[in-house]
Amino acid sequence: MIVRTLDEITGTEADVRSENWRSRRIVLAKEGVGFSVHETTLYAGTESTFWYANHVEAVFVTSGEGEIEDLGTGAVHPLAPGTLYLLNDHDKHVVRPRTEIRCVCVFNPPVTGREVHDENGVYPLVTESPAPA
């Protein structure tokens, strides 16, 4: 069993920040469970383009408001607490938080924590063997 708190992650290499967002990676590939879990904060008034060409991501909004635009279709969807979006087709998208948005994100395959978004907003596919039990 693994039990972790956000306080334990804060300020470590699992606490990743950019100008537009902060991602605290709670469960990573090294745990060997087939997915990763992140608590992400998207800062108000920013605009972030993402394209997870190598991952499927589910995002559940716990607080804040904004919108997500599907760049493939042009559809714009509101984001508010209780909203989940699933990037099941590796959808290229833009997130525009009106207020600070906090959300829980799940990635498959799991991220290692070393990925960095490239110029297209893509995480490379980095694999890692699970840590020994």
UniProtKB/TrEMBL annotation:
Organism whose genome encodes this protein: Cellulosimicrobium cellulans
Coiled coil start-end: none
Pathway(s) per entry: Amine and polyamine biosynthesis; ectoine biosynthesis; L-ectoine from L-aspartate 4-semialdehyde: step 3/3
SUPFAM superfamilies given in the database record: RmlC-like cupins
Assigned protein family: Belongs to the ectoine synthase family.
Lineage: Bacteria, Bacillati, Actinomycetota, Actinomycetes, Micrococcales
One Pfam short name: Ectoine_synth
Keyword 4Fe-4S set for record: no
Record keywords, A-Z: Lyase
Molecular function GO terms recorded: ectoine synthase activity
InterPro entries: Ectoine_synth (IPR010462), RmlC-like_jellyroll (IPR014710), RmlC_Cupin_sf (IPR011051)
Gene: ectC
GO biological process: ectoine biosynthetic process
EC number(s) recorded for this UniProt protein: 4.2.1.108
Stated role: Catalyzes the circularization of gamma-N-acetyl-alpha,gamma-diaminobutyric acid (ADABA) to ectoine (1,4,5,6-tetrahydro-2-methyl-4-pyrimidine carboxylic acid), which is an excellent osmoprotectant.
Name of the protein described by the UniProt record: L-ectoine synthase
